[in-house]
Amino acid sequence: MESDKMGLGTENATSVEISEPLLLESENIRDVESENLEKIPEWKEQITIRGLVASAVLGTLFCIITHKLNLTVGIIPSLNVAAGLLGFFFVKSWTGFLSKLGFSVQPFTRQENTVIQTCVVACYGLAFSGGFGSYLIAMDDRTYKLIGVDYPGNRAEDVHNPGLWWMIGFLFVVSFLGLFSLVPLRKVMVMDYKLTYPSGTATAMLINSFHTNAGAELARKQVSCLGKYLSISLCWGCFKWFFSGIGDSCGFDNFPSLGLMLFKNTFYFDFSPTYVGCGLICPHIVNCSVLLGAIISWGFLWPFISQHAGDWYPANLGSNDFKGLYGYKVFIAIALILGDGLYNLIKIIAITVKEMSNNSTKQKNLPIFKEVSDSESSKILMEQRKRDEVFLKDKIPSWFAASGYVGLAAISTATIPIIFPPLKWYLVLCSYIIAPALAFCNSYGTGLTDWNLTSTYGKIGLFIIASLVGSNGGVIAGLAACGVMMSIVSTAADLMQDFKTGYLTLSSAKSMFVSQLIGTAMGCVIAPLTFWLYWTAFDIGSPDGPYKAPYAVIFREMAILGIEGFSELPKHCLAICCGFFVAALVINLLRDLTPPKISQFIPIPMAMAVPFYIGAYFAIDMFVGTVILYVWERINRKDAEDFAGAVASGLICGDGIWTIPSAILAIFKINPPMCMYFGPSLSR
Question: What is the C-alpha to C-alpha distance for residues 661 and 675, in angstroms, rounded to an integer?
């Protein structure tokens, strides 16, 4: 499960469900605001220097956080709320400071707040879709050696180690096409079909609330709460460092909190503020699914398979040999991921085709805003008309979007084969011909369900191109094609989500588009630079270290599977994989067919798959987070709703900030002074 970015699905695990009461609440907020007929700034006035500076700072922070999550567990919660909140805090603090000094400052509007949030999300989104924890790092020498130099289909020629300049160049040539692919359809998606884009709607509600008197006071308290837990998390990260010693077996990250026996099977609480924060943000069912997956795999399945060492696989293999237990871990995780992804892809496409071909049922079935009836408030009707007028005012010409896409596609088609020679120009061109259709499907599905299936589309491209190219370069070609596809469908869905947010906050469509362009340009530089910080400071990809980069191995194995097939899997591995693949399909089907009161307790296969390969420790941390949230909701639900996101964002951001000084210490070879280690008592 790699997500939006999970605001963003599972591949979007923290997807926000917009219920009717929530929509009514947002209408009430806008009702209050409509009484104050605010002056809407021109689109150029919505994009400010101070906003771009704040976006660059927050984009850097969130790229660091996204890389850390990508390289450790691969689960990325939505940071949209934190982006909106911290953007509000940054600019409000700056304008307040200048006002006290006697300077005249431009008022901070919700439109400027929306531009900042859009820019930040576009920037840190590239830390995910740029493949720094998946397809790009799957090309490196360590992943090649980890799979095995003698492993069929794993060739030394199919190695392309990370390089700062080629990564920046690659992102620049692939990341902008998605922004141009669906721009002409913004009115159709947002106004005609009235797709909810739940995460975009929730973000708009948040920003609108900040710019009311009551909302500003709550925002101040939320910022204070975020700052407090950020400080606690930062100090805790510093404290832990002193005991983490040299190597990977020291410190609180290896604390056998549940006993040494369970510790050997990775069941322990490792005191990570990041994972506890993820548990506070992710829905309860996601956290429980992760824990269930950990129990099934590390509690039962791996011990069972280990008992057959010497029969199912050679007993003397290393712990990271794909011909042994390690192969079962990776391929069973792949089976669950592909089963879940394939089911949801077919489901979203079916919903899309059905709803687009049957307009008579659209109003009944789509989760849309209700049209205002004659009996409802005229103020709400006026507000909706005002939104329509603002959204359509600053047009982005279709010829501009079309020519931009064609021009960028031509540049990319010529450039990508230079970076990745096995991916021929005609394969890149074919990808760009079909990409807009896939981008539309993904954007439409995201608008309906909030499930962003970016990595599923990427994996489809990976399999197809790898099998077409074959054994002579198919691995690199497939992984690069995966990146091309992920970049387009991800940025297109993000842009349409931002158009929805801009529509509800009375922001110009043109300012949304320009801020996406600026944020993407920032991300093309900031995402590789922040990744390079990790790459130079830490042992990325080591299966025994904290930065395992789990999806690197998974993506490379998928490319090899596309070429070689299943002939080299360990004994019974294919049968077990088929069982889990079918189980993923059945579980998803049950989630859709059963009533909500039952389906809310059925686990999510994608979330279950993650600990199969990584371990159970982070599942314990996330479950601690979900227990804290559950108890908090029972004690004071209003407080939990208002402040849980701020607490979680503070824990995640503080731990992310500590990564910077710890990386600098590692670069200068400054080691922690102590190693806290636990072992069994020695008998006297």
Answer: 19
Residue identified by tokens 């995460």 is: 199
Q: Which residue has the tokens 């209408």?
A: 27
Please report which residue ranges of 505-604 form alpha helices under DSSP H.
509-537, 550-564, 573-593, 596-599
Which residues span the domain enclosing 641?
A: 41-353+414-668
pLDDT of residue 420: 94
d(CA 598, CA 601): 6
Q: With 0-12 CB in 10 A as exposed, 13-18 as middle and 19+ as buried, what is 397?
A: exposed
Nearest to 10 by CA among 610, 585, 652, 627: 610
> What's the number of domains the chain is made of?
1
pLDDT in tens, 170-186: 999 999 998 998 888 88
Distance, in Å, from the CA atom of 499 to the CA atom of 228, rounded to the nearest integer, reads 33
Please calculate the CA angle 678-683-684 and round it to the nearest 5 degrees: 125
The CA-atom distances, in angstroms, between 264 and each of 258, 261, 608, 613, 622 are: 10, 6, 20, 15, 19
CB atoms under 10 Å from CB of 246, counted, come to 9
The candidate with the shortest Cα–Cα distance to 2, out of 509, 606, 524, is 606
CA distance 41 to 566: 59
Which one has a higher pLDDT value, 614 or 229? 229
Task: Select, from the ranges 94-108, 336-350, 441-455, the one with the highest average predicted confidence (pLDDT).
Answer: 94-108
3-state helix, strand, coil in the chain (%, to 5): 70, 0, 30
CA–CA distance from 228 to each of 57, 222, 310 (Å)? 19, 10, 54
- Asked whether residue 258 is assigned to any structural domain, the reply reads yes
Residues paired with residue 675 on neighbouring β-strands, in sequence order: 244
Tens-digit pLDDT profile for residues 393-426: 878 888 998 999 999 999 999 999 999 999 999 9
Say how far residue 93 (Cα) sits from the centre of its chain: 29
- Burial pattern 572-601, b for ≥16 Cβ within 10 A else e, equals ebeebbeebbeebbebbeebeeeeeeeeee
The structure tokens listed for 160 are 């392309």
In contact, 336 and 581? CB cutoff 8 Å = yes
Question: Is 559 part of any domain?
Answer: yes
What is the model's pLDDT at position 421?
93
Single-letter code of the amino acid located at 366: L
- For CA atoms 32, 37, 42, 48, give the dihedral sign: negative
| C-alpha neighbours within 13 Å on the C-beta side of residue 648 | 31
Instruction: From 489, 486, 491, 533, select the one nearest 512 (Cα to Cα).
Output: 491
* pLDDT at residue 13 greater than cutoff 50: no
Residue tagged 């996406």 (tokens): 516
Instruction: Note whether residue 677 is domain-resident.
Output: no
Tell me if 498 sits within 8 A of 517, measured CB to CB: no
Residues 577-582 have a mean pLDDT of 93
Contacts of 239 (CB under 8 A, 6+ apart): none
Q: What is the residue-wise DSSP string for 77-98?
A: B--HHHHHHHHHHHHHHHHHHH
Q: Does residue 638 fall inside a structural domain?
A: yes
Output the pLDDT for position 635: 93
Q: In a 3-state reduction of DSSP, which class is residue 435?
A: helix
What does the alpha-carbon distance between residue 295 and residue 301 come to, in Å, rounded to a whole number? 9
Tokens representing residue 189 in the block: 């998606």
Q: pTM for this structure?
A: 0.77
Count the Cβ atoms, other than its own, within 10 Å of residue 350: 10
The whole-angstrom separation of Cα 129 and Cα 113 is 24
